[in-house]
Amino acid sequence: MRKASIYDTTLRDGTQAEELHLTTEDKIRIACKLDELGIHYIEGGWPGSNPTDKLFFKEIKNYNLKNAKVAAFGSTHNSKTAPDSDPNLRAILDSGVEVATIFGKTWDFHVTHALRVTLPRNLELISGSLAALRPGVRELFYDAEHFFDGFKANPEYALSCLKAAQKAGADVLVLCDTNGGTMTDELARIIVQVQSALPGAALGIHTHNDAELAVANSLEAVRLGAVQVQGTINGYGERCGNANLCSIIPSLELKLGVSCIGAENLEKLTRMANYVAETVNLRPFPRQPYVGGSAFAHKGGVHVSAVVKNPETYEHIRPELVGNVNRILLSDLAGRSNILFKAKQYGYDLDKDDPAVMDLLAELKRRETMGYEYSVAEASYEILFFRMMGWSKRYFQLVNYRVLDAVNEEKEPFSEATVMLQVRGDVAHTAATGRGPVNALDVALRRALEPSYPTLAQMRLLDFKVRVMSIANKDGGGTASFVRVLIESGDKRDRWTTVGVSHNIIEASWQALVDSINYKLFKDDPQKWPQPGGKHDKAKQG
């Protein structure tokens, strides 16, 4: 089986993405997870450019990485200095890494307009920089910046840059589609020409996603013989991002038969993608191939019916191969197969002709017509399901609530909520202020419930979305429309989403808040009914 090494540049190129910032501690944590995943090379950053990267290379020495080698990144030396006295190259050597990656200009346009040196002088910068590093590192890579654009403009010069790097001791010549606009057929044609001009040279690939081809171009390069693939977790990177290793790795392993991290490590991929997303404080992209929450989600009744019989009918791989799971979504497109599948997940072995199935399906479609979105708010659906099955336990009941908005002396708006609940036979009457009416309601609701249900202190509201539902509006639109509120909540173990719909945004928010709290109490309840494995015709209130 062919092999390809994976070179991760999340900690360097990935941090150039908009809204993405990593501390040294963040970079250490991600590097350790990348090592666990079986990544071969981790580009830690540019040690000569900023204190964060410099500290990273110092701190990472305290960790015993089992699979990955840490690489330092830098540019060719300053044209006005000699390589031996260049601070950038010195910083790479001082970092103590075994692997160094140097990028250099390969497009004649960049040489003359950005670097502002002659074409022969640029060749000297490439060869001089690599030659200066060669004795101090075990592996040396040359990133041929803008290679494909450079080759299209001046193939002879682009090749001369590669030859200079190879002669100076580069182990791998990495062909970079830095602007991300090269078409796959162009890329393939150029790689074949490079292989003809430099027979036996070890080639790598580094692509960007500006034409939505970074993954395709990386895979094509490997198919043609590239031995190293550079990219980032979740495709983070400048502009439209870098090549997404979360798509490249499983495609290599499962589609092209190219070994990179191995089947055992491949099962960690979804957790890795989510871990990095959490660390950089960016929401995971649900429709990301292989590792996204929607990658194996099925909504249409025909699809679900087929998937229940055999998942291969609508899934190109088994999701567990990459650590993911398939999901059956509930919506107005749902059929009985959707209901039966979810019921089995909850411990019910329902018959397709059970009246409860048709009742639940009718209620689901009625609510979705109003604007409820259960394909997203699965926690609200789970509560609805058990209510329809006869579960009547109530952790609390509303007496009334009230929300006031006001402005204080500093003319800063604030909200005050008053909540009255029936909780375990007593009336809890609380009030709270907050940053907006929903926050005030949330605080007041928790204040009333936490004395009786202390585990609610673990719960946090993570996200809040409001959408005007014009499709459900019968009153002409505008401010009279239905609104849908989605609330994402979480505790130490789980995350869940609930939904509320009303003409009144406060009422819609209240519905979603109550569902969220009920779901937390339900999943933590050791005496909740029904127990997994129960059947509808045997179910009785506990």
Descriptive report:
Strands 1-2-3-4-5-6-7-8 form an eight-stranded parallel barrel, surrounded by eight helices. It has two domains: 5-261, TIM Barrel (Alpha-Beta Barrel), CATH 3.20.20; 397-524, Alpha-isopropylmalate synthase LeuA, regulatory domain (Double Stranded RNA Binding Domain). Helix 8 (184-197) links the parallel strand 6 (172-177) and strand 7. The protein has helices spanning 24-37, 51-59, 87-94, 108-115, 119-133, 147-153, 155-167, 184-197, 214-223, 245-256, 263-266, 269-279, 301-309, 336-345, 355-370, 378-388, 437-449, 505-524, and strands at residues 5-8, 41-45, 69-75, 99-105, 139-145, 172-177, 203-207, 228-231, 297-298, 327-328, 397-407, 413-423, 426-434, 460-469, 482-490, 495-502. Helix 1 (24-37) packs across helix 2 (51-59), helix 1 runs antiparallel to helix 12 (269-279) and helix 17 runs parallel beside helix 18 (505-524). It is α/β, with parallel strands linked by helices. It is elongated and about 85 Å long.
